[in-house]
Amino acid sequence: MPATTSLQALAQDLPRLWHAETTSPRDRKRLLRSLIADVTLLPEPDAQTMRIGVRWHTGATDELAVARPGPGRTSDAALEVVRRHGATHTSAELADMLNAEGLTTGEGMPFTAGGVARVRDAYIIFGPCTVAVQDGEVSVKQVATERGIPADGVYDWLRHGQVPARRGPSGRWCIPWDPASREIYRQKVAGFFRLNPVLSKQPVSFSAATADV
User: Fold this and answer.
1) Buried-exposed string 155-166: b where 16+ CB fall within 10 A, e elsewhere
2) Which end of the chain is more exposed for a tag (fewer CB within 10 A), N or C?
C-alpha cells in the first residue's frame, strides 16, 4: 500500500494524468474503475435533466444533475433568445441573432431560418403574423376553421410533412388552396374524424368556398 503522501500526490495529479496526450481511453476507463464502485441513473421528473448517483470505492456517494444529452436538443440559452424575440422577429432574423451570440444548434452547427422554424414548432413559439399569405393560399387558422378541426391537428400534419404547405420568412405556414391540396386536406380531415368520433358537440358548417370538397 503506497504511503499517504504518495496517494495524496497522485490524487492531486489526476487531472493532468487524465488529460495527458499519452493517456489512452483504455487507461481512463481503468482509472474510473479504480475510483468508482457503481453509477446509478435516478428517477427525475424533469425530462430535460438526468440525475446520476455515484458510489465511490471509499463508500462515499455523490449525486449529480446534468442536462440530458441528445442530438438536436436546443440549448437553454438559444431557446431563451427565441422565446424572448420570437413574437417580433422572423426566423431568419432570429438565426442571425443566435449566430451573432455564438450559439449553435444541438448538432453544433450555425442556426438557419429553417433551424429556428423547427425550434418554434418543437416548443410552440409563434412568429410575427406580419407576412400575409399569398393569393391562392390560406393560413392554418383558416384551414382549421373551415374544416372544423383543432389547429393543433393541422400543425401536426405540417410538422410531419403529411400535407402541402410552405414556410414564410417569419416561419409562418402558408397553405396552397388549390383543388389538389384541398383534396389532400379533405382526406386527412376524414381520417381525423374516424380517429376522433366525438370531437365537438357544436355543429360544423362549411363555407361555400369549400362546399365542392
Assistant:
1) eebbeeeebebe
2) N
pLDDT (tens digit, 9 = 90+) per residue, 134-150? 778 888 888 888 888 88
* Grid cell of 156 as nine digits: 401536426
Q: How many helices (H) and strands (E) does the chain have?
A: 9, 6
Please work out, in degrees rounded to the nearest 5, the angle formed at the alpha carbon of residue 175 by the alpha carbons of 173 and 178.
175
Pick the closest to residue 149 from 96, 195, 81, 87 (CA basis). Answer: 195
Radius of gyration of the chain (CA): 27
At position 179, the amino acid (one-letter code) is P
Q: Where are the beta strands (DSSP E) in the chain?
A: 36-42, 49-56, 61-67, 137-138, 166-167, 173-176
H or E segment at 64?
A: strand 61-67
Residue 9 is predicted with a pLDDT of 67
Cell numbers describing residue 83 = 422565446
- Amino acid present at 33: R
Dig out the grid coordinates for 121 from the structure: 414548432
Of 190, 124, 134, 129, residue with least CA distance to 158: 124
pTM over 0.85: no
3-class DSSP state for residue 96? Answer: helix
Other residues' Cβ atoms within 10 Å of the Cβ of residue 67: 12
What 8-state DSSP symbol labels residue 197?
A: S
Name the grid cell of 205. 358548417
Residue 131 DSSP code: S
3-state secondary structure string across 73-84: CCCHHHHHHHHH
- The crossing angle, in degrees rounded to 10, of helices 76-85 and 91-100 is 140
